[in-house]
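To: structure subgroup
Subject: Chain for Friday's discussion

All,

I'm putting the inputs and outputs inline so they're searchable in the archive.
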Amino acid sequence: MSEHPEIPVILAGIALDPKSRSPVIILRDSEQQRILPIWVGHFEANAIIAEREKIDRPRPMTHDLLKRVILSLGATVERLVVTDIRENTFYAELHVTSGEEEQIIDCRPSDGIALALRFEAPIFVSEPVLVHEETKQQATLLETDKLSEFIDNISPEDFEEG
């Protein structure tokens, strides 16, 4: 369980990374306007989109089946927390309660988000994860700014052979 502050986020959208062609879940902190992009598989993205868009399927998909199993055991998903990022891999915990008992279950953020949406449960991100991603995004912007500055300041003389 995380000892860091947990920031509530919303699922702002799902995009397709133009380079890798992989789906990217975009979580957004509604207060600070910070974003957390998480690259996921196509199956997981489809599960999230299906629930978000309330697409009715003729047969239950894996996350729908898991919801039914959780409910049949008298439990419910209370919340999802994205707890950590290590070596570009995100970690999450699904908080499931049955009566007074809470179980914290390790899961991939994409599966956790798909289930949290099905239970209308809130999603949180641990503050250090948001800070890490924000720092990474700022570094990328700085690199882009340096490249832009280099391009803006280049002159024909820079290419003359001396």
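Points worth raising on Friday:
DSSP finds four helices and seven strands in the chain.
The domain at 6-152 is CATH 3.10.690.10 (Bifunctional nuclease domain).

D.
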